[in-house]
């Protein structure tokens, strides 16, 4: 039997970014599942806070050179890679000077969310999918960690639904506490409507005139993980009404086996359904 392939898409990962719930899980989980027989790929943004020399990032020329369209503008996508020697694991970084060069991740020095966070999210989510297409690597599970990945479930189930590499992929979304969506403008839906999508396709991401990233991702995911002990407002309601598999909050220790079992159950449903 071939190894199951798991794509980890994360907005943060220790030691490349500061220690948070997201970065800690995104660091430990791929190593655990790789050591327990699954094949992995990890993709994250190359934020300007990441020291390329210290972490030995280098460009992957064969993967770079694409342009990603965001709000009718073209932005070059550069792919870099680094290895975690203690984990025998490679991490791929999506880079663009306009979106990721700054020395702060999601907010400025005064704690105010960047105005272009929606554009950065669209660039990253679409860039992830296009990069995996260049890999020519068909994942069995796509596991998205954090609000910045929240458009991946939508894109895989709509704009890329006929892409052969993702035909059998189960999409998992981990909802963690906190997101800057309150700062998103009314233009969010128009920006996020890539390819042949319309603003109507993003209705799950807007409720009562406000952007709800977690709720939209939950609507399009095949399975949901509660990544934080205290969920954001609306997440619990979205989970209960979605009627799909849910992995409850696992804490930061000993969670790996629960995640693997969750993956196995999701992919077994796919086999049984054929």
TrEMBL record:
Domain of life: Bacteria
Entry EC number(s): 2.4.1.21
Starch synthase catalytic domain mapped to chain residues: 5-230
Keywords: Glycosyltransferase, Transferase
Enzyme class: transferase
Pfam families in UniProt: Glyco_transf_5 (PF08323)
Keyword Glycosyltransferase: yes
Record GO terms (molecular function): alpha-1,4-glucan glucosyltransferase (ADP-glucose donor) activity
Gene3D superfamilies: Glycogen Phosphorylase B (3.40.50.2000)
Keyword Plastid carried by entry: no
InterPro entries for the chain: Starch_synth_cat_dom
Reactions that this protein is recorded to catalyse: [(1->4)-alpha-D-glucosyl](n) + ADP-alpha-D-glucose = [(1->4)-alpha-D-glucosyl](n+1) + ADP + H(+)
The name this protein goes by in its record: starch synthase
Native source organism of the sequence: Phaeodactylibacter luteus
């Amino acid at each position: 039997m071939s190894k199951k392939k798991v794509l980890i898409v994360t907005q943060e990962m220790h030691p490349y970014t500061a220690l948070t719930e997201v970065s800690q899980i995104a660091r430990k989980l791929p190593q655990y599942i790789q050591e327990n027989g699954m094949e992995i790929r990890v993709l994250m943004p190359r934020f300007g806070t990441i020291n390329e020399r210290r972490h030995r990032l280098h460009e992957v020329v064969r993967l770079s050179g694409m342009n990603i369209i965001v709000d009718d503008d073209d932005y070059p996508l550069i792919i870099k890679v680094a290895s975690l020697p203690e984990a025998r694991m490679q991490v791929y970084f999506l880079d663009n000077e306009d979106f990721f060069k700054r020395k702060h991740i999601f907010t400025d020095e005064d704690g105010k969310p960047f105005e272009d966070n929606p554009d950065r999210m669209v660039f990253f989510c679409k860039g992830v999918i296009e990069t995996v297409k260049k890999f020519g690597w068909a994942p069995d599970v796509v596991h998205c960690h954090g609000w910045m990945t929240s458009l991946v479930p939508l894109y895989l189930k709509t704009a890329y639904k006929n892409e052969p590499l993702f035909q059998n992929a189960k999409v998992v979304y981990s909802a963690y506490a906190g997101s800057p969506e309150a700062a998103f403008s009314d233009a969010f839906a128009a920006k996020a409507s890539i390819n042949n999508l319309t603003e109507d396709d993003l209705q799950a991401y807007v409720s009562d005139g406000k952007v709800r990233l977690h709720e939209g991702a939950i609507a399009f995911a095949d399975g949901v993980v509660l990544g934080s002990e205290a969920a954001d407002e609306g997440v619990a309601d979205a989970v209960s009404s979605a009627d799909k598999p849910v992995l409850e909050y696992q804490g930061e220790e000993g969670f790996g086996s629960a995640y693997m079992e969750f993956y196995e159950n999701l992919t077994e449903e796919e086999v049984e359904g054929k």
